[in-house]
Every structure is written in C-alpha cells, then in structure tokens.
Amino acid sequence: MAERKPKPGKQRYRRTDEELIQDLQKRIEDLKNRKAAKAIKKDPASKEATGAFRALTKAVEKSKDTADADLKRALSEAQRILAEYFESKGLKVPKARKPRARRAK
Fold first, then answer.
1. Any domain includes 24
2. d(C-alpha 64, C-alpha 77), whole Å
3. Domain range for residue 71?
4. What is the mean pLDDT of residues 75-91?
5. Where would one find coiled-coil regions in this protein (predicted)?
C-alpha cells in the first residue's frame, strides 16, 4: 500500500474509495466468520468439546508433577487434536478457567 500522508495543507489523510471498499469487505468477512462461530457454539456437542478441552488443559497442567510420561503425552495429544478442530472451524481455542483472586499488592 502507498504511504499514507495528508495532502499539503491538510491535517489528515482521506482514504480512497478503493481503500474504503477493501476495509468494508474485510469487515463483512469478519462478520461472516463470527456468525459461523456463533452457530457452532450453539451446538450442544461443541459446548461439551469446549468443556473437554478445558478439562484436558487442567489435566496437562497437573500431569507435569507426575512421572508418567505416557499420560502426559496422551493428554497433550488429545488437547492438540481438539485445538486443531477449533481452529479449523474458525473458533478461538478456549482458555482454561482459573479461579479469580485479588491481585497481590
């Protein structure tokens, strides 16, 4: 894209019609992706998969203290497969829910 400098004697840069159209098309695409993600999130099986992913995340964290390497590998493999599924459907990978607490001063 060309350098975006205001014309001499002007305060701001005015976008061209083509730039406006590109921005709006990108916004339309984002809205379509959000709509698809909402439809997937309403699916009961997808909700359970999200919960399973969170549970796997917790299990992987707790398995770091154990010496069972096979268990660690199996949990992380299952978590990776679910993460790939979420990304392929355009969903963000859910984060583990952690208990809220006050910040230490």
1. no
2. 14
3. 36-94
4. 85
5. 14-41
